[in-house]
Amino acid sequence: MNLNFISHQIDKVWDYLSDPELWLAILGGAIRIVLILLISWLVVGIVRKIVDKLFVQRQHGPIRIPKRREDTLKKLIKSVVAYVVYFMALVMILEVFNFEIGPLLAGAGVAGLAIGFGAQNLVRDIITGFFIIFEDQFSVGDYVLAAGIEGTVEEIGLRTSKIVSWTGELNIVPNGNIDQVINYSARNGLSVVDVNVPYESDVAQVEQIIQEVAETLPDKYEFILGVPEIIGVQNLDVSHFVVRVIAETEPVFQWAGERNIRKEIQDKLYKSGIKIPSPRIVTYSEQEMDQLTQERQQNRG
């Protein structure tokens, strides 16, 4: 009896698999899925080219936007279009498998209420991302400090932003975690250089040497905007006094400005016979100490 039952089931499976209509339906479904994916890919590609072309035309129009802002908007528009098109493609593929989309979406709405509290972070990320882009807090190519991460912005999305550290690491940061931003690219930078000079040196002579160096820097380094300014003696230390020099630079070039200004001043001071002070240790013999003690006592007397 068991053998007859098994044989009957095998015959039913064989009849089902050997039905030409089944294979025609599978073939038709596969073709539809391939066409849906192909059309989606073409639509995304065409829209991306249209977006690029529109922004190129805008560059020659009366209203222009900064390149960093342009790169941000282009990537965002392309990303949103891709999400929408591929979501529609997924819905169409589900229909190929005879899934009822209406009840599925209704169920998703009920489930959405159930997981609403769990999706708060997602909603927060999207809202924060919208305001980052709308307020132009930072754009692609800017050097920023955001969420404790410092680097160059590679991409801004509605949910996450990508920041590349200066050592090469790619950091993907949820927008909701960005509560404070320092944008080094938004304004010109300021290089601040403190020059340590031994007390044996004349202040006026040192400032004159630094001034001579400062006047040559804008021609040597394009990112230094104008002649650096000598603020004067900033501090008095144990073995030296400190002369402060400041210079305006192009955005993000303040650190390069400090390195190059420091180097040029150091070279000039060294050639002028003024050496950077260093800690000194003075030793006295017992006889010299006795002599110094006697001289102090005589001076007090």
Automatic annotation (TrEMBL):
Location of the Mechanosensitive ion channel transmembrane helices 2/3 domain: 80-120
Membrane topology (UniProt): Multi-pass membrane protein
Membrane spanning residue stretches: 22-44, 76-97, 103-123
Subcellular location, record wording: Cell membrane
An example Gene Ontology CC term for this record: plasma membrane
An example Gene Ontology molecular-function term: mechanosensitive monoatomic ion channel activity
Chief localization: membrane
Keywords recorded for this protein, A-Z: Cell membrane, Membrane, Transmembrane, Transmembrane helix
Start and end residues of each Mechanosensitive ion channel MscS domain: 121-185
Domain Mechanosensitive ion channel MscS C-terminal stretches: 192-276
One matching Pfam family: MS_channel_3rd
Keyword Heme among record annotations: no
SUPFAM superfamilies reported in the protein's UniProt record: Mechanosensitive channel protein MscS (YggB), C-terminal domain, Mechanosensitive channel protein MscS (YggB), transmembrane region, Sm-like ribonucleoproteins
Family: Belongs to the MscS (TC 1.A.23) family.
PANTHER family in the cross-refs: MODERATE CONDUCTANCE MECHANOSENSITIVE CHANNEL YBIO
The protein's name: Mechanosensitive ion channel protein MscS
Lineage: Bacteria, Bacillati, Bacillota, Bacilli, Bacillales
